[in-house]
Amino acid sequence: MAGSSISRVVAAVMDHVDAARGRDPATAGASTVEILATWPGVQAVLAYRLAHRLKAREVPLLPLGISWASRSITGIEIHPGARIGSGFFIDHGSGVVIGETAEIGENVTLYQGVTLGGTGFQAGKRHPTVEDNVTIGSGAKLLGPVTVGHGAKVGANTVVVEDVPPCSTVVGNPGHPVKVEGRKVEGPDADWIHLPDPLQDAVKILSARIKELEKQVAELSGREDPENGDPDTTPRKGRSSAGG
After folding, report:
1. pTM for the whole structure
2. Could you tell me the fold of the domain covering 2-196?
3. How much is the CA Rg of the chain, to the nearest whole Å?
4. What is the rounded distance in angstroms from the CA atom of residue 180 to the CA atom of residue 130?
5. CB of 67 within 8 A of CB of 78?
């Protein structure tokens, strides 16, 4: 019996080590001991596993104490009441928050700064459900009892307040799909650097159209082309006000 329990523990630990190896190039050449000792995403999930098991057995205080200690060490907060499947990986991880009623499927990847949070003080299910094989980019905020469908991708800094279709990519605030079921809604294929934004593209098209109409009105009325009166847009030299 004791041997069986140890085997399950070892299998659970190696599941998360293997997830790190498969999704983080920085693990190349790192031993299992190094990953367990220095990867905060792995440490936080293993601490959660222990806290969740203790909470399921209705052990008082200790589950939240483990969660608090894990957050203090790793910067990752996972409530013991959350439900998380196998193959879960948090890359870097600082600032990740996973609420009490959050549900996460298998082989899900989160990057730093992700929040699976609630939107109010209501009881019951109030945190997101993330299905299998989902990737959530840095700084994304998923708020309320929304569902992120199987295989979806959530872009960095996206704010999700509505359900995300399976096999889609969402970006923006609020999040909106740019790719569904492998078919592009608009823009290039999703990556974490150049995610398309259809709303921004629409604004650019409207702006160009307005300028063209202004030019036509100026020609018909004999007035000066309004573009001639635009201020100088030549890039200025010197230090940027944004720094650098």
Report:
1. 0.73
2. UDP N-Acetylglucosamine Acyltransferase; domain 1 (2.160.10)
3. 24
4. 17
5. yes
